[in-house]
Amino acid sequence: MLYVGDQQQTVDFFVNTFGFVKTTDAEMMPGVRWIEVTPPNGQTAIAIHDAATFDKQPGEGAYLTYACDDIAATVAELRSRGAEVTDPVEEPWGTYAKVTGPDNHEIQIHQKVA
After folding, report:
1. Full pLDDT tens readout for the chain, 114 residues
2. What's the rounded Cα separation, in Å, for the pair 4 and 59?
3. Which long-range contacts (CB under 8 A, 24 or more apart) does 32-37 make?
4. Contact between residue 2 and residue 62 where contact means Cβ atoms under 8 Å apart
5. Which of 14, 48, 59, 91 gives 37 a disulfide partner, CB atoms 3.0 to 4.6 angstroms apart?
6. What is the pTM of this model?
């Protein structure tokens, strides 16, 4: 669950930047939308909620991490789509980069270990 300042901006970010699919967009209660986005071929969804409705601050919610096969190629692709992405960092446990989303959510991308 991510609490955001602008649901549509966040949905657009996940759909246009990461290639996710909006799988649910329904009225939860009058004036409140329940929106979920799902990675391509994924089985886990992210629920994107309006922070103010739930007495939360934009930026609260899950810390997301996704795996990829090639970190350099993924960073280049995300940057080409307009995302703010750090350079890859190599650690003993793996290589990762961080993407900054709307409301400053940090999304980590790590390269799968072979």
Report:
1. 899 999 999 999 999 999 999 999 999 889 889 999 999 888 888 889 999 998 998 988 877 888 899 999 999 999 999 999 999 999 888 899 999 988 888 899 999 776
2. 6
3. 33/7, 35/7, 35/11, 37/11
4. yes
5. 14
6. 0.81
Distance CA 46, CA 5 (A): 16
Exposure string over 13-39, b if 16+ CB within 10 A, otherwise e:
bbeebbebeeeeeeeeeeeebebbbbe
How far CA 18 is from CA of 30, 52, 75, 95, in Å, comes to 30, 25, 11, 19
3-state per-residue secondary structure call for the chain: CEEECCHHHHHHHHHHHHCCEEEEEEEEECCEEEEEEECCCCCCCEEEEECHHHCCCCCCECCEEEEECCHHHHHHHHHHCCCEECCCEEECCEEEEEEECHHHCEEEEEECCC
Q: Are 61 and 1 in contact (CB under 8 A)?
A: yes
